[in-house]
């Protein structure tokens, strides 16, 4: 018969490959996110606001990689960068929403998504603040 300590050790041993696997699976995505954040921090301010789209191409790429992963997010970012040229009229161009994500809880939404969709998240925030609090004395 197995005691509790042995069971905990075995469950940790079983979960360790899962942790390593998740780390390796998300490594390319995390590397791209770091590169994009460094670009936005150090290189983007040199050029100023020259992008014809909202969100900017770097913000679009950061959201696409954060939400869709390294491969699909890079594909979306590359398509966007190809469209960003002086002969394009620009405009609002949001990242396609993923089919598998439900962001009913605003605390679970990545910050870059909140920044790129201010009308949606500010309206949701204003809606929750304008609701009257339930009172217990009726």
From TrEMBL:
InterPro entries reported for this sequence: Membr_insert_effic_factor_YidD (IPR002696)
Localisation per UniProt entry: Cell membrane
Short name of one Pfam family: YidD
Segments traversing the membrane: none
Topological type in the membrane: Peripheral membrane protein
Family the UniProt entry places it in: Belongs to the UPF0161 family.
Role, per record: Could be involved in insertion of integral membrane proteins into the membrane.
This protein's name: Putative membrane protein insertion efficiency factor
Organism name: Arthrobacter alpinus
């Amino acid at each position: 018969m197995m005691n509790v300590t042995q069971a905990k050790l075995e469950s940790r041993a079983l979960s360790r490959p899962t942790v390593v696997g998740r780390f390796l699976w998300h490594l390319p995505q995390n590397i791209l996110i770091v590169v994009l954040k460094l670009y936005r921090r150090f290189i983007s301010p040199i050029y100023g606001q020259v992008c014809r789209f909202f969100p900017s191409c770097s913000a679009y790429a950061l959201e696409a990689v954060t939400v869709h992963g390294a491969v699909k997010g890079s594909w979306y970012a590359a398509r966007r960068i190809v469209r960003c040229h002086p002969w394009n009229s620009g405009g609002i161009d949001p990242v396609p929403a993923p089919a598998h994500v439900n962001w009913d809880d605003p605390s679970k939404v990545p910050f870059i998504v909140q920044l790129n969709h201010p009308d949606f998240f500010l309206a949701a925030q204003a809606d929750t603040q304008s609701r009257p609090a339930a009172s217990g004395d009726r």
